[in-house]
Specification:
This protein folds into two domains: 14-95, Orthogonal Bundle (Arc Repressor Mutant, subunit A), CATH 1.10.10.10; 105-329, D-Maltodextrin-Binding Protein, domain 2 (3-Layer(aba) Sandwich), CATH 3.40.190. The protein is of the alpha/beta class. The protein contains 13 helices and eleven strands. Strands 3, 4, 5, 6, 7, 8, 9, 10 and 11 form a nine-stranded mixed β-sheet that branches. The protein has a two-stranded antiparallel ribbon with strand order 1-2. The model is unreliable at 303-329 (pLDDT under 50). The longest helix is centred in the first third of the chain and has 26 residues, at 73-98. Helix 1 packs across helix 3 (43-57) and helix 1 crosses helix 4 (73-98). Helix 5 (123-133) links the parallel strand 3 (106-111) and strand 4 (138-143). The two termini are 41 Å apart.
């Protein structure tokens, strides 16, 4: 496709902004096929939108094909400028809405999975009081990993997110909410379930189910002792594999204790594999969104107090901390 460098006249229409939003979604998802679900569009439509945008701007934005999806240098510039433009538009809309007595629009939040089973989770109460104060605000909540939530808050796709505390990014603000405790488990059908005394050598004989984005951590734990033969992207998937009796896996204690199906799970060497981590709320640094400001007002009055460590958890395990510093849930 030949592109005319004089096509773009510097004027942006509503249609152009629509094309830019599609382009940002494709880039954020890492390709056309990956963006289908988010955009609710088929591949032919997405491809046509990107071609229309390239024609409109007079530049080639991306390479796609058997080698995968990647942005050109010009594509990266357009993506960066598009994020800024969309963020500016959202700030303008939010500022205009804030002129009215009733806050309207949508509060977009990202949350890591399984948190709802933790009695220490303050978000339901916060959202309840938020809804009572701002009854016309709608909610749009996604459940995904901390990495994706951070990226979505950075690019303005969502207003705030609940993530696992680990690295802190300069462009984000972090607020501690509470601590979550995790351990390794096996199910009653696993050979280790009835074993009176379990050793590290025993652990090395059995398959381990872990997160696909924690390869470095899984290799590090116990000097590479864990034999990882299954990769997943959610805690529910790990619980499912543990339930087969064929895998060991790490889960939050509150999640195991809350579900009757998991009552027969057994703790595995908590003094070695148990760890705690902070759950934090993140927002983009310097945000002026009234939705976010109203949410933070509720948090300012919240006295987050971490619960006492349960008997089956430990802070002594240095390996637990590494999990959340190397890329994680």
């Amino acid at each position: 496709m030949r592109l005319n460098p004089r096509t773009f006249n510097g004027k942006m229409s509503d249609g152009d902004i629509r094309l830019l939003r599609v382009f940002c979604a494709v880039t954020r998802c890492g390709g056309f096929a990956a963006a289908e679900s988010e955009l609710q569009l088929g591949l032919p439509s997405i491809s046509r939108y990107i071609k229309d945008l390239e024609t409109r701007l007079g530049v080639r934005l991306c390479r796609r094909g058997r080698v995968g999806f990647s942005l050109t240098d010009q594509g990266r510039q357009v993506y960066s400028s598009s994020l800024q433009l969309i963020a500016d538009l959202e700030r303008f809309e939010a500022n205009i809405r804030s002129m009215h007595s009733d806050l309207t629009g949508t509060l977009n939040i990202g949350i890591i999975d399984t948190l709802i089973t933790d009695k220490n989770l303050p978000i339901p109460e916060i959202l309840k009081t938020y809804k009572k104060k701002h009854p016309y605000v709608e909610y749009d909540i996604i459940t995904t990993t901390s990495n994706i939530i951070e990226q979505n808050v950075l690019d303005g796709t969502i207003h705030a997110g609940l993530v696992v505390g680990r690295r802190h990014i300069n462009q984000l603000d972090y607020r501690f909410l509470y601590k979550e405790y995790c351990n390794m488990y096996c199910s009653e059908e696993h050979p280790l379930y009835d074993k009176q005394k379990i050793s590290l050598e025993d652990i090395s004989k059995y398959d381990y189910a872990g997160y696909s984005f924690m390869e470095d951590y899984d290799r590090f734990r116990s000097g590479g002792l864990l034999v990882k033969t299954a990769s997943v992207d959610s805690m529910e998937a790990i619980a499912t594999l543990i339930s087969t009796g064929c895998f060991l896996g790490t889960l939050p204690d509150h999640y195991v204790q809350s579900l009757w199906r998991l009552k027969q799970f057994r703790l595995i060497l908590p003094e070695v594999f148990g760890f705690s981590t902070d759950i934090e709320l993140i927002t983009r640094h310097g945000t002026s969104s009234p939705h976010v400001m109203a949410l933070l007002d509720h948090l300012d009055g919240l006295q987050a107090k971490p619960r006492s460590m349960p008997a089956n958890a430990t802070n002594a395990n240095p390996l637990g901390k590494v999990a959340y510093e190397t890329g994680v849930v």
